[in-house]
Amino acid sequence: MPSTLSGVVVKSSDLAYMIYTSGSTGVPKGVMVEHIGMLNHLLAKVNDLQLDIDSVVVQNASQTFDISIWQFLSALLVGGKTVIYDQSVVLSLEAFIDRVSSDGVTILEVVPSYLTAMLEIYEETGIRNYSSLRYLMVTGEALKSTLVSRWFAQYPEIKMVNAYGPTEASDDITHHIMDRVPANGVVPIGKAVQNFNIYILDESLNLCPIGVKGELCVSGIGVGRGYLNDQEKTQRSFITDPYLSSGVRMYRTGDLARYLPDGTLEFFGRKDSQVKVRGHRIELGEIEQKLSELIGVSEAVVLLKQDHRGENYLSGYVTLLSDQASVIDSEQLREGLQSVLPSYMIPDYLSILPEMPITINGKIDR
Fold it and tell me: What one-character-per-residue DSSP string does 125-156 give?
């Protein structure tokens, strides 16, 4: 190490990094994360995923995506190995699958839309390339039970981890580790990782009872410092934990969730995904879930639109499994929804797409 660096002292409260996130608004915000939060997240991965000297973790996320931090560093903390895949590998599913196999990867993380594309290849070819893989992590979007079922149908011996967390709290704040498909069809986001408190609160910041939806709020050492040069948004989203006396920071995620009787959390999407159509309050995520459960459907998105008179209506978009593309039409999908949803929740328009548009981070581009 150069002698010029020998006197550098890094405090746990110093900034470790800043990443811009647009969240649900599309307007970038610079999130400031401290060393204590970053290290807590890295060690949570070490503990929950049993990382050790034999671990091989893939760094496949864009460096503008907060999950790239733990992908880079977590294995190195315990003497394991990080393998870095450039964009050309990530964009070629066949090359990606081959590399995961040849590199002996033990921990892999992808977003649901990317996993869907990967499973298409596995289901078509029957290739089983994952002899070393111990954990598949899924993050970035809501994980549907149909996708979990497809994974375990192919790889029942490889555990799946549903991870959830905002950039504002140093990335993942919950893990839910599965070795089978959830019995009731609900895929929880799990329980809080180490050194976090998670509350489900109503509009007045009162605790919601078990089973009642509210805003997911998180406090603890991983909550970041706030937004760069945006005091108004920082004061609105980063507040003092009202349930602790030590002045701990709490972040209001703007996401809806509820506690289940077993202590895990069920995620429902953004508060602002609750929309009103012709007098009915509707959760878009609920419609998406029912669409994705229909036979032959691979992915589903429902959006709120407005017509030329300014009236709200629902528009649904789906992709189909490759062997169903020629035998299912939008009218069949509509009929399937009519058996599981009230009429006011059925999208006015249903479009079948060859593939979903995705962002640079691999999430569905709504």
Answer: H-----SS--EEEE-SSPPPHHHHHHHHHH-T
Residues contacting 274, CB < 8 A, separation 6+? 256, 281, 282, 283, 284
Between the alpha carbon of residue 74 and those of residues 31, 43, 47, 150, 238, the distances in Å are 21, 7, 10, 28, 27
Q: Rounded distance, CA 171 to CA 183, Å?
A: 28
To the nearest 10°, report the CA torsion of 93, 355, 57, 168: 160
Stated pTM of the model = 0.80
Beta-ladder partners of 350: 316
SS3 38: helix
Dihedral sign for Cα atoms in the order 193, 139, 303, 323 = negative
What's the rounded Cα separation, in Å, for the pair 250 and 222?
Answer: 10
Integer Cα distance of 236 and 216 in angstroms: 15
Say how far apart CA 261 and CA 275 lie, in whole Å.
28
d(CA 105, CA 99): 8
Query: Which pLDDT score, from 0 to 100, does residue 237 have?
Result: 96
pLDDT at 38: 97
DSSP label at residue 271: G
Angle at 107 between CA 224 and CA 197, to 5 degrees: 30
CB burial of residue 352 (10 Å; 0-12, 13-18, 19+): middle
Residue 133: band (very low, low, confident or very high) from pLDDT cuts 50, 70, 90: very high
Q: Give yes or no for residue 272 having a pLDDT over 80.
A: no
Which sign does the torsion angle of CA 102, 107, 111, 112 carry? positive
